[in-house]
Amino acid sequence: MPKTRVNCKMRTCTKRKGRFCCNCPEYPCDRLRHMDKRYRTKYGMSEIENLEFIREYGIRKFVASERKRWISERGIFCVHDKKYYT
Question: DSSP readout, 53-71?
């Protein structure tokens, strides 16, 4: 796993109860708001909206909706570098 993910403060947060930030009593925290703003600006997507979807419908429905959104006959679209991967 890349060092940036190993040391990720979001991933290693000890305040969260459960698997997702939306289960935290401080949700959405300043760190998540900052990341959400960056992702909205740079990639046109919202981490907070994703977490709200997970909270309301569950992770299985979220993954199914993301598959429809990002996977096509061209491959899997990466928002970070705007490329398709097979």
Answer: HHHHH-HHHHHHHHHHHHE
Residue 47 CA to its chain's centroid (Å)? 5
pTM of the shown model:
0.84
Whether the bond into 28 is cis, omega within 30 of 0: yes
CA 49 to CA 46: how far, in whole Å? 5
User: In the structure encoding, which two tokens stand for residue 5, read together?
Assistant: 């993910």
Angle at the Cα of 63 from the Cα atoms of 45 and 67, rounded to 5 degrees = 75
Q: If you average pLDDT over residues 50-68, what whole number do you get? A: 96
Report whether 48 contacts 32 (CB < 8 A).
yes
Per DSSP (E only), the strands in the chain are: 71-72, 75-78, 83-85
